[in-house]
Amino acid sequence: MLSLKAKAEVDKAADAKKAAIEADNTLTREEKDAAIKQVDDAAQAAKDAIDAATTNADVATEQGKGETAIAAINPKCRQEDDSQGSH
Q1: DSSP state of 1
Q2: Span 28-61, pLDDT tens digits
Q3: Which of 6, 32, 68, 86 has the fewest CB atoms below 10 angstroms from its CB?
């Protein structure tokens, strides 16, 4: 079924993003946890939308939206933000 494959692809994108977040040594544990929660929330929203889709085209659209939302999550280290604000 297409929706199962789409949800698996969303999970794959989420897992890759979470691994990248975990590997980012510039982030604090709190920043990593917050970013991972954002990824989990985006993935769940995408999977819910996939479940609600009524056509294969809608499933594909929602999968794409979910993968885009996950990819857009790019946490920044607080120290970087602080140093930029002081200039």
Answers
A1: -
A2: 999 999 999 999 999 999 999 999 999 999 999 9
A3: 86
**What residues contact residue 63 under an 8 Å CB cut-off, 6+ apart?**
6, 7, 9, 10, 46, 50
Q: Please give the structure tokens belonging to residue 86.
A: 């002081």
Contacts by 44-51, CB closer than 8 A, 24 or more apart: 45/69, 46/7, 46/10, 46/70, 47/7, 47/10, 47/11, 50/3, 50/6, 50/7, 50/10, 51/3
Note the pTM of the prediction, 2 decimals: 0.86
Q: For residue 27, give the DSSP letter.
A: S
* Cβ neighbours for 52, distance < 8 A, ≥ 6 positions apart: 62
Give the position of tokens 């280290």. 77
Q: Is 36 exposed, middle or buried (0-12, 13-18, 19+ CB in 10 A)?
A: middle
